[in-house]
Amino acid sequence: MSVHIIPTKITFLGCGKLNTAILSGILSSLPDPPSTFQAPTYTPNEKFLPNPTVITPTSLTACVHHQSTSTSLTQTFSHSPLVTVLANENVPGVQRGDIIILGVEPSVYRPVLAEPGMLDALKGKTLVSIVGGVSVSKLYDAIFHSSPTSLTTSEREKHCHIVRVTLGPSAAVRASVSLISEEAGRRYPPAVLTSVYSLFMRVGEVKMWPEQLQAAGATMLAGGLAFLSVAVEGMVEGAVGEGVEREEALQMAASCLAGLSKLVAGEESPGGVRGKVATPGGSTAAGLEVLEEGRVKELYREALRVTTFRTSRLDDPKE
Ligand SMILES: NC(=O)c1ccc[n+]([C@@H]2O[C@H](COP(=O)([O-])OP(=O)(O)OC[C@H]3O[C@@H](n4cnc5c(N)ncnc54)[C@H](OP(=O)(O)O)[C@@H]3O)[C@@H](O)[C@H]2O)c1
């Protein structure tokens, strides 16, 4: 079967922590052979193009607000001739791209999308939003906010295609999971989803994901890294207390996480992993009892609940 190689220009509209991670991951993926990035050839609902598609970035434009950010990003990516950084030039930046990855804070996506000239600049393009808590329909509203046209919903949707993607900072090391959501009830051209899918395969695994579960996905993928880092910190501090060098302790914790990650990504349940290590009445069981008495699992559950709730309301002015 033939492979579609599609040269594509990518613009990062806002390039802070997360878009910089995606940009870094994409850059480090470029030397790999295209076959690594083949999107699924077919799904029963015919969402994808029939042939494997490889999105090959030919330019990567990062748009930021402050000149100081622009200077530091230019330095960070000085090794790549594909990267251009622009400060306060969002419309020219969007004009340069085929796929636009919107990565500004939830508080500024509206003015950015309503900038004069943005509506025209987005025509015919795919806008991928990684902005937390902002639905596809709100993004369309923001784009058409200052437009005097009376376009119908379907005319708006044809103007540009908007897809939401949630992923975490481990995109920088191409180890994220990207959750792609289309707006419920809407039919996207297969080429749109295929190109987004194929692009994000460069920074890890990709899944189609219901839009209403975006906040929970963001909590697991981004918040989850932060939550688990608390466990790592506690373990490292404990090991240092026992006389282990901090660096050694960190490496051991990292190796535990890597092992755990492989086990639970395979067939093993978290409880099954505990069962492999702890024997009733044994030393690990004694440590697990301490965690249980401290209600650590319930605290993690509550942290997930609170963060998901807050994420789903990031665009709520009352929050
Ligand atoms: N960080 C994560 O792990 C994570 C996870 C899931 C979802 N998200 C979502 O991803 C989005 C970005 O998060 P982040 O953590 O990367 O935020 P961030 O580090 O604060 O980055 C925001 C970026 O937007 C730029 N920006 C702000 N106003 C702008 C404007 N008017 N024109 C052009 N660029 C502008 C900033 O430029 P300057 O630096 O020049 O001000 C900066 O590059 C948020 O919506 C967040 O909800 C983040």
State the strand order across the main sheet: 3-2-1-4-5-6-7-8
- Tally the beta strands: 8
CATH H-level superfamily of the largest domain: NAD(P)-binding Rossmann-like Domain
Q: Please give the radius of gyration in angstroms.
A: 22 Å
- Give helix % range: 40-55%
Domain Pyrroline-5-carboxylate reductase dimerisation: 218-312
GO molecular function, one term: pyrroline-5-carboxylate reductase activity
Binding site for NADPH: 90
Family: Belongs to the pyrroline-5-carboxylate reductase family.
Key features of this structure:
single chain, 319 residues, Rossmann fold, ProC C-terminal domain-like fold, eight-stranded mixed sheet, 13 helices, globular, binds NADP nicotinamide-adenine-dinucleotide phosphate
Write the layout of secondary structure elements.
Blueprint (H helix, E strand, L loop, with lengths): L3 E10 L3 H13 L23 E12 L2 H10 L6 E5 L2 H6 L3 E4 L6 H5 L4 H4 L4 E4 L6 H9 L8 H7 L1 E6 L9 E6 L8 H11 L3 E5 L5 H28 L4 H20 L4 H8 L5 H11 L2 H17 L7
The structure holds NADP nicotinamide-adenine-dinucleotide phosphate.
The site of NADP nicotinamide-adenine-dinucleotide phosphate (NAP) has 26 residues, from helix 1, strand 2 and helix 9.
